[in-house]
Amino acid sequence: MEVPIPRILLAGTNSGCGKTTVTCAVLQALVNRKLKVGAFKCGPDYIDPMFHSRIIGAKSRNLDLFFFDDNTLRYLLMKNSEGCDVSILEGVMGYYDGLSLTTAKASTYEVAKTTASPVVLVVNAKGLSLSILAIIQGFLALYPDNHIQGVILNQCTPMTYPALREAIERQFEGRIKPLGFLPAMPDCVLGSRHLGLITAGEVKDLREKMQKLAAQAEQTIDLDALLQMSRNAPPVSCTSIVLPRQREPVRIAVARDQAFCFYYEDSLEALAEMGAELVPFSPMTDEKLPEHIQGLYLGGGYPELYGEQLSQNVTMLRSVRDALAAGLPCIAECGGFMYLTEAVGEYPMAGCLPGKSFDTGKLSRFGYVTLTAKEDCILCSAGTSIAAHEFHHWDCTHTGDAFTARKPSGKSWDCVIASQTLYAGYPHFHFYSNPDFAVHFYQQCLKEKKHHD
Question: Could you give the CA distance from residue 138 to residue 135 in angstroms, rounded to a whole number?
Fold first, then answer.
């Protein structure tokens, strides 16, 4: 099928250039105009989509060409843009930065090519003047099929922008449209920690900051030109992906609070589309798991920041421990895996798994991997693979050996504790990378339901 999708991809020259700030400013300004806006993040990041979601009032989605083939990525863009006046895609890292230092594979540039999306380059103008032209020229020249049509200058002053705009128009003779700027706005800076930005739920004055950014965008970014550019984007062509509807519904508890908040929304919705009822709960504040569940999903997040509160909730720890001992099907990724170990730092945890989690002080096994099962388990049969991602500072004295993780460079290691009812390990995965994993998990939940009928 071929579907018209008004869209713009906001890409950066590098990490830290301000593309998330510009994206949030544009999203909030368009929402303030009463437009229905779709939001997407290139790559595997969890945190930026949380900010998008707080602004647009709907879930932001990930577009990742390591996780998905071309058709799946275009399908998810189409599916989640339905009914939207415009969709805003935020890039990851620098525009051409991919899986390694020397490839653009899985980069924002490849997402732009795959979706034929118009690209607006965000350039940090702080400390620069004419050199901005060299930066833009370099991005245009590296690959001719770059889709770059506009530029927004971040941390640019109102005094210098008119001259820089004229220089851009003169140098590129209409090939690149200057679309405005944002000045330095120190009162709107979003805080960060070891895994990137702090989460949207932790920013107490987030709404006020977003409104300040939006007001500034209305003044100094040409939103009308941005919208016109989005409407000129060609239709998106894809084949629909239909997930197999299962014979009965199941209830799957999903940990949702400050400690467990890293989820790919399309991945969770894959379970819902097959018939699951997703039941949110809080390991921090609820006394026990929800009633009458046939599955448990413990996602990633920051359990290390809430170790004391999690550890003191002994009734929940007991509820989880008893449920897993009784064979409740469970997926536990990264922070969820840590929660099931004996301890996170000094704080005792559920103790369902051997080993203690500890802070390494640096990123451990960072990046994309392909997971291949060494034995039959809850998600797949031996020899089956799925794309995954690791991003954590903490490690564990016992990480398991049910899967082999292999980086694109060829480096590999064993990981994950798995059985017919459990997946527990540091790698995160997305069900749309291999929908059979979702089917297998669902079927285990069905077996659990039948066991108690």
Answer: 5
As annotated, the active-site residues are 334
How many whole angstroms separate alpha carbon 143 and alpha carbon 293?
51
Q: How far apart are the first and last CA of the chain?
A: 42
Residue 235 carries which side chain, given as an amino acid letter?
P
Positions of E strands within 258-355 = 260-262, 276-281, 295-298, 300-301, 330-333, 343-344, 347-348
3-state secondary structure at position 235:
coil
Per-residue pLDDT of the chain (453 residues; tens, 9 = 90+): 899 999 999 999 999 999 999 999 999 999 999 999 999 999 998 888 888 888 888 889 999 999 999 999 999 999 999 999 999 999 999 999 999 889 999 999 999 999 999 999 999 999 999 999 999 999 999 999 999 999 999 999 999 999 999 999 999 999 999 999 999 998 877 655 444 445 555 556 788 989 999 999 999 999 999 999 999 999 999 999 999 999 899 999 999 999 999 999 999 999 999 999 999 999 999 999 999 999 999 999 999 999 999 999 999 999 999 999 999 999 999 999 999 999 999 999 999 999 999 998 877 777 899 999 999 999 999 999 999 999 878 999 999 999 999 999 999 999 999 999 999 999 999 999 999 999 999 999 999 998 876
Query: Which residue has tokens 């799957």?
Result: 252
CA distance 85 to 147: 21
Q: What are phi and psi of 393, to 5 degrees?
A: -95, -15
Type of residue found at 156: C
CB 197 within 8 A of CB 190: yes
Q: How far is CA 83 from CA 79, 232, 288, in A?
A: 9, 17, 39
Q: Which two tokens stand for residue 342?
A: 């004996």
